[in-house]
Amino acid sequence: MSKLLLIGAGKMATAIAGGLVKSGLFAPAELLAYDVNPVAAADFTKATGVECAITGCFELAAAADRVLLAIKPQTLAKALTGLTEALAGKTVLSIVAGVPLQRLSELTGSRKVIRVMPNTPAQIERGASAIAAAPDVDEAELKLAEKIFGAVGIVMLVDEHNLDAVTALSGSGPAYVFEFIQALADGGVASGLPRAAATELAVQTVIGAAEMVRATGLHPTALKDQVTSPGGTTIRALEVLEDRAFAGTVIQAVRAACARSEELGRS
Q: Pyrroline-5-carboxylate reductase catalytic N-terminal domain location, by residue (predicted)?
């Protein structure tokens, strides 16, 4: 029986474990979990049905075939202290933000390391994850990593140097969309709609528009043109967005997030 150990039992680890069990990729008995926080451990077990220990990390790591690191970057080195013997030679997956493959290899003692950048919609199985693997990771382990994160959304393979751009686009992207939904709803309220109705309409509009892009395969500009009648309301609104450099602002926001991710990776 192949076993996967999750070190860290926060929201993302809980989402991943839940997705793995729900998809049938792993049975609860094939998952191990560890977190120093008793509350997080209890919440994880309640949500997933997987027992989460608060002691004995070395023994769990030794018993596991693979390990998934799901902890904060600032606690990573401390959390891995004394575990290199148990981790050596095993595939180690990491969703720890900003920690390069080389550093992961140094901290774990394994050359088979995989970096993954998921995003928060993974919590509802609508995530977008990008995977970058070290050269020593074989095809079978890479395919399994794709299946693990495929249980909570879509998966894309990228070169490690592109992970900063992924972080800026899909990693931070949900926050940009939440901001847009809030602004769209505020516009509805300013125009006379009740708050609840404005929010529901804004949310469904974003969901529907995104699904149209995927379902039709059309370029967003083509779909935008379908909504935009000559001299109508939509073109007037788009004129305001253009005047305020909406597209350019979004582009610069993503580039700023990418630059910050690169900066954090060097620190």
A: 5-98
Is 9 annotated to bind a ligand? Reply is yes
Establish whether 209 is an annotated binding residue: no
Asked if residue 90 is part of any domain, the answer here is: yes
Q: Is 71 annotated as a binding residue?
A: yes
Hey, how many other C-beta atoms are within 10 angstroms of the C-beta on 167? 24
Question: Is 11 part of any known ligand binding site?
Answer: yes
Claim to verify: residue 197 and residue 253 sit in the same structural domain:
yes
Average pLDDT over residues 54-78: 95
Q: Which amino acid is at 73?
A: P
What pTM does this model have? 0.92
In a domain, 164, yes or no: no
Cα–Cα distance for residue pair 104/260, rounded to 1 Å: 20
Distance CA 163, CA 177 (A): 20
The response to whether 73 counts as a known ligand-binding position is yes
pLDDT value of position 1: 64
Give CA–CA dist 90/252, Å, rounded.
40
DSSP 191: T
Element (H, E) at 66: strand 66-69
pLDDT per position as a tens digit, 128-173: 999 999 999 999 999 999 999 999 999 999 999 999 999 999 999 9
Give the domain range for residue 245: 171-266
Structural contact between residues 20 and 26, judged by C-beta atoms closer than 8 angstroms = yes
Supply the pLDDT for residue 221: 98
Position 263 pLDDT exceeds 90: no
